Amino acid sequence: MSNWQSPPPAGPYPFYPGQQGGYPQQNPGYPPNPGYPPNPGYPPNQGYPQGDYNSSYPPAPGFVPPGGNFGQGPPPPQPTSPPFGDQSQRGMYGASYSEDPQNDIKGFEFNDQSIRRGFIRKVYSILMCQLLITLGMIALFLYHKPTRNYVAHHQWLFWVAFAVTIVLLICMSCCSSVRRKAPMNFIFLFVFTGAEGFLLAFASSAYGREEVLMAVGITAAICFALTIFAFQTKWDFTGMHAALFVCLIVLMLFGMIAIFFPGKVMSLVYASLGALLFSMYLIYDTQMMMGGKHKYSLSPEEYIFAALNLYLDVVNIFLYILSIIGASRD
Q1: CB distance 288 to 239 below 8 Å
Q2: How far, rounded to the nearest angstrom, does the alpha carbon of residue 252 sit from its chain's CA centroid?
Q3: Which residues lie within the region annotated Disordered (predicted)?
Q4: What is the pLDDT, as a whole number, of residue 86?
Q5: What is the pLDDT of residues 140-160, one digit of tens each?
Q6: Secondary structure (DSSP) of 139-174
Q7: What residues have CB less than 8 Å from 222, skipping those under 6 apart?
Q8: pTM for the structure as a whole
């Protein structure tokens, strides 16, 4: 029989002592349950304090709660600041990254600019060594008559040097491992420079000393002015590689046609177009080396390739200027 009953009807019913109304006493044969007495072995439960464990009972032997000793309040907060500094973290390669994205960008640009400046200095140092070697060989052929006569009677040296330049140029242009691994890249580059300097000296020996010196001076002035222009201008020439390549193909076809129609005017036009085209290539290669705001740029690992490109531009400008001077003197 259920102990729950509906409310009693109106009438006299016995109630619990001190009760002002409500339900009648149930099971009058049993005394009311006074409850269980507290266990004398444990202190009364005081509840769970905020952020701590139940401190009513002692912990088991060997149990250590995480975040501090037992019963001593909430665990201490974990440090949130990074271990490398105040609101900053050091990256894999030593770059500093802060919580402010603007500071991150500024630090990265500073590192990138430093690397690019070192790359430019290395490229121009290599280029100066190449030009000094080339100028030394040209001066040897111009001012040392026995050397010039010996090469004139052994023209097979010209073809050997020509084959060496073609093979090394293909290797350094097509094989990235050849132009990136030191010291093999320096060996290939300076062997190529020696062979190319020999070809230029052989070609210069067909002209007079004054003509060669004038061509050297004009080439130096043109290259210096174009380099300053490439560094200062806001125009981006790095996206003109397709147009420059098409102009180079047209110039090659024009040179083949000029072989069958020789003449002073044809030589002047061909040499002038060649000097103009490689002047544009000099600006293009200089901006490729600079990087930064330009659309395309060379990797800092390509210092040999960058020096090779600039050297070939200067050499071609010199040859076409020398051809213009020689054709105008005839």
Answers
A1: no
A2: 35
A3: 1-100
A4: 46
A5: 998 888 888 888 888 888 999
A6: HHHHH-HHHHHHHHH-THHHHHHHHHHHHHHHHHHH
A7: 275, 279, 317, 321
A8: 0.65
